[in-house]
């Protein structure tokens, strides 16, 4: 049974401390689709991810965000997660004193809205950790405390696999990963790929898209999606950078003046 839903963003404007960062983003991710969002520093890529998940620092001043028939902008952060949105952080937080297993068990219970038995959870956890090639001792460590960059990203993927979101937003999940860790991250995303799952992969580089094949590639510049194409667009950016797009569209370099990601 298909339970996937589209994420539809229309004319999204977002400000931080009264400075407008997103200036009218339009985006639709249908079930089963993987969308890549690329762009230079300061374009607003991370702002888009945080705004969709409801970070309080990011003020939506105009526009709509719908997940199926649900108005995302009227939801609290926890309700967005329950509805099926998931954000993999670029810099995951450390939580001392809370083990990975306890955190994930509580997160699964909260998103499901019902208690999963310890036995069932442990069985599911072991299955997903095996997929991600993680040692079982990992589950007993405190959340992200002392983790390497690669371990933090694997833990984000473990969380995604257990929560089974409808739409996952991966904010530069490939950042700082070696090629082996990158393949593991890709394996996690590709294992969910299907009619019940869609994803937005925010990245600077083409290399992750060698392993997570996007259906659509967008270029975000100056707070807007200025160009959309297929996987070949990412290859062209890899070869030529962004200057040709700026020149084509007559855009100024926003990175220096934006001061945000």
From TrEMBL:
Gene3D superfamilies cross-referenced by the UniProt entry: P-loop containing nucleotide triphosphate hydrolases
UniProt family annotation: Belongs to the ABC transporter superfamily. Ycf16 family.
Annotated PROSITE patterns: ABC_TRANSPORTER_1, ABC_TRANSPORTER_2
UniProt key word Phosphoprotein: no
Top-level taxon of origin: Bacteria
Domain ABC transporter: from-to ranges: 7-247
Keyword Hydrolase appears in the UniProt entry: no
GO MF assignments: ATP binding; ATP hydrolysis activity
Descriptive protein name: ABC transporter ATP-binding protein
Alphabetized UniProt keyword annotations: ATP-binding, Nucleotide-binding
């Amino acid at each position: 049974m298909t339970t996937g839903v589209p994420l539809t963003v229309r004319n999204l404007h977002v400000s931080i401390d009264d400075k407008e960062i997103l200036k009218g983003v339009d985006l639709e991710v249908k079930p089963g689709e993987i969308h890549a969002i690329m762009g230079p520093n300061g374009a607003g890529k991370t702002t888009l991810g945080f705004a969709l998940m409801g970070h309080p620092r990011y003020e939506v001043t105009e526009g709509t965000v719908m997940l199926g028939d649900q108005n995302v902008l009227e939801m609290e952060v926890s309700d967005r997660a329950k509805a099926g949105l998931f954000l993999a952080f670029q810099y995951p937080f450390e939580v001392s004193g809370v083990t990975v297993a306890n955190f994930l068990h509580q997160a699964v219970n909260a998103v499901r809205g019902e208690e999963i038995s310890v036995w069932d959870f442990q069985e599911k956890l072991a299955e997903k950790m095996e997929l991600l090639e993680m040692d079982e001792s990992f589950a007993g460590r405190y959340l992200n405390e002392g983790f390497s960059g690669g371990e933090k990203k694997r833990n984000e993927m473990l969380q995604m696999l257990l929560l089974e979101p409808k739409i996952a937003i991966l904010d530069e999940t490939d950042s700082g990963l070696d090629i082996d860790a990158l393949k593991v991250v890709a394996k996690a995303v590709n294992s969910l790929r299907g009619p019940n799952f869609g994803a937005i992969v925010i990245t600077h580089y083409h290399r992750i898209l060698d392993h997570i094949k996007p259906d659509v590639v967008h270029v975000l510049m100056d707070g807007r999606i200025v160009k959309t194409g297929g996987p070949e667009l990412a290859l062209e950016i890899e070869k030529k950078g962004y200057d040709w797009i700026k020149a084509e569209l007559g855009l100024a370099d926003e990175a220096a003046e934006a001061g945000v990601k």
